[in-house]
Amino acid sequence: MKEKAAPARRSTRNEATVKLRSLTFVPEPILDGQSANASIVRESSETAFMNLRGPGASGIDSFRLSSAHALLSCMPGDRTALGFGPKSMVAVPAGDEQHNLDTRSLKEPYMTETGNPSPDSEIANGGSPAIAVSTPSSSHAANDQVETQVAPLPTILVIDDELLDMELLADTLGTDYEMLFATEGIAGLEIAVAKSPDLILLDVMMPGIDGYEVYKRLRENPRTNEIPVIFITGLGDVAAETRGLTLGAVDYITKPINPEPVKARVHTQIKAKLTRDKLTQLASTDGLTGLANRSYFDAMLAYECARHARSGAELSLILLDIDHFKIFNDTYGHVCGDDCLREVAHAISAVAVRATDIVARYGGEEFVLLLPETHLQGAVMLAEKVRKSISNLALPHKNSAAKHVTASLGVASARMLPGSVTYNIVEEADKQLYAAKAGGRNRVSFRKFDEAG
Fold this sequence. Notes:
Alpha-Beta Plaits; 3 domains; 38% helix; Rossmann fold
């Protein structure tokens, strides 16, 4: 949801406070830059407010550290604080830093491997305080204007260690595109996975891993292997240009950057990418519910099993079946049955909000949720939320015990071994689903097995 730009005028202190109260904040302040960066990427935060006067780091150091992970479109506001995010957001006015805002999280995060309720609650010592702000739950336009929906702008990720080049690209492209920036390769890869940009502008020469290695890793990850990449090379570096195009880059930009040719090249690639996306979406989306389809889920399950086998992290999966759905169809008709499936799909999606989670229609009245790097306790917590969300729809079902539509859920969690067979975790979740049905339906059954091989 984008807000309509307000008339040019100073925002009052009260308006800024109301604006901040309409946002979802991480549960606790984060007191060091590294933790803030990780939180911004993990929570897919839209805005970060960072106090640059804290001990241990200067304002410039904090800015450079956060620029590896955050949006760089700085909002106007107090000179002692920088806000990274949409320019339509209202910044905190001078003197309002100590206002008593309610920063309690509006959603309960999934449990981590250690069983902690929130990874952001581990506050490191020292550094500059920072708060990463999630997507607004509601908004209040200045002057009480009616909020208008605006189609999201295509997103471009720039991975470049030269701040002046990033600033020039932001000035050149920022009006037409949402801009993301990273100052080194690893941070760029993290943002690419978390944000799925429509185009990546990738510098060849960078500290740490170079642009070629970043490109290789982008292509190895199913979440990023379809993102077009334009390499940024030095003027006259024919060998770098040739190597980049041979690897599969769609184009290249030479330094020093010339704004007009860059605009034209970027526009051409964005237009082609959006066209491909429409075709890909049709091929990977369930036409009835709008969720991912079985084919896409199977591909992502294979990828996540292999990735978790390498990392040793825990992978969780939830299988869900609508209770007595055949009887529902026989009673109310298939048109109502289709409406029921769509409502249930929406209820699941409203609860499974992490960008890394995959919600798919598994077949018929069955749905599946794939939860990367999620502890069993967190998966069970989410499954119970999904069960309640479906029950709260209160869709009439006179032939069920609850007299409304309910669902049974099976949860499985495991650490994957190298060479793991993907059906093991699905098979275990299916067993737990049948256990939930045998136990009376409208409930969650779960099991953790130490290793899946």
